[in-house]
Amino acid sequence: MEWITEKRMQTRLQKLNSMMQKLTFQIVDPNGNIFDRISKRSLDSIVRVEMKNWNIGNDYSYGIIKNSGKTVLYADSLADTSGILTSNFKLTLFPNDVFKKDDVLSIVIKDKNNYLLNSILPLLALSFIFTGLVIWGFSYTLRVILRQKKLAEMKNDFINNMTHEFKTPIATIAIANDSMNDPRVYQSPEKLRFYTDIIRDENQRMLRQVETVLQMAQIDKGEMVFNMEIIALEDLVDAAISSMKLTVEQRGGGIIKKWNATPSQINADPNHMMNVIINLLDNANKYSPEAPEILVESTNEGNFISVSISDKGIGMTPEVQSKIFDNFYRVQSGNVHDVKGFGLGLSYVKAIMDKHSGTVEVRSEPGKGSTFTLKIPIAKS
């Protein structure tokens, strides 16, 4: 215990002795030169180390001023006297002296704005990166939500359309079946044949609808099988026109063909290519509110055969034209679907044309009708 007390007393005496020496020095030489206490080399070394610690490098100068900042006592070789006097970066030298003096170290940073920018640049960069990531994450999440909402609406629309499309032929078949149980119908071969034809036609209609859905599912999965062969495109067009002619004529309309393409041989799957043409003819018929006037034309364009199917129907706006080849999309009048279907016809057309290295384009104006143009490569001889 006595040893500890003795140690503390020695420490206090040393501090007191140091203070007395400083006091004696200041009393004996109150106006002494500051460089008697620290050399210019030591001062330069200390300043250089501190500037390096603050990442300022060599882009600075310094000096010592006194008399309340009015007189420059010392300036380094790079210092500007006016800059030293007006600098905002000042530090009192030897602040622990008993008799304080007004010796001040003044630092001049040559490019202060650049230094400040370099100091905060890493933080700014990180802030921008983080903000960018937040914005990207938010926009991606919003895009996914909107896409899922659109898919849900498309699914519901598809289910509603499919239910309606299947309900009509099923109801027709049920009515025809009930009618056939009537003894008067059963005993009349003509009436019996009439109702059996209705059942057959409605059954084929449902089969075509199911086949359309299955074909699009196979195309999406890449499982569709194509039986390619060299065929005359004009023969396919003639067969498609014959298939649609009666339906169009029942509405008081007609189909006109102007064939100018020679040769017209293509390498294609006959069934799928004919379905493409029938789909376009069917759309031209369905979207013509009056008696359909359908024109089928063909020309040669380089190594391609161009087949255009035009109508004078309701037409489409540019916004609608950009969406008609999407799955399940259907043209509407207001909020009501005027035309029956699943919205798969034109997406099927585009998928088949892509598989045949061809294209499908549309030109349309509201109220003036539409023209769909198929471009198919000519078969190499």
Secondary structure: elements and pairs:
Elements: H1 2-28, H2 40-53, E1 60-66, E2 71-75, H3 81-86, E3 89-92, E4 104-109, H4 112-180, H5 183-186, H6 189-221, E5 229-232, H7 233-250, E6 254-259, E7 265-268, H8 270-286, E8 293-301, E9 304-310, H9 318-321, H10 345-355, E10 359-365, E11 369-377
Parallel strand pairs: 6-8
Antiparallel strand pairs: 1-2, 1-4, 3-4, 5-7, 8-9, 9-11, 10-11
Helix pairs in contact: 4-6, 6-10, 7-8, 8-10
Structural class: alpha+beta
Summed up, the domain count is 4
DSSP strand tally: 11
Q: What percentage of residues falls in helices of 4 or more residues?
A: 40-55%
Rounded Rg: 46 Å
Q: Which spans of ≥5 residues are poorly predicted at pLDDT below 50?
A: 333-337
Strand content: 15-25%
Going by CATH, what is the homologous superfamily of the largest domain? Histidine kinase-like ATPase, C-terminal domain
Largest sheet, described in full? 5 strands, mixed
Order of helices and strands: HHEEHEEHHHEHEEHEEHHEE
- Major sheet: order of its strands? 6-8-9-11-10
Kindly report how far apart the N and C termini lie.
116 Å
- Within the CATH hierarchy, at the fold level, what is the topology of the largest domain? Heat Shock Protein 90
CATH level 1 class label of the largest domain: Alpha Beta
3D architecture notes:
The chain is α+β, with helices and mostly antiparallel strands. The protein folds into four domains: 1-30; 32-110, no CATH class; 140-221, Orthogonal Bundle (Helix Hairpins), CATH 1.10.287.130; 229-377, Histidine kinase-like ATPase, C-terminal domain (Heat Shock Protein 90, 2-Layer Sandwich). Helix content is 53%, strand content 18%. The chain contains ten helices and eleven strands. The chain has helices at residues 2-28, 40-53, 81-86, 112-180, 183-186, 189-221, 233-250, 270-286, 318-321, 345-355, and strands at residues 60-66, 71-75, 89-92, 104-109, 229-232, 254-259, 265-268, 293-301, 304-310, 359-365, 369-377. The relative contact order is 0.07.
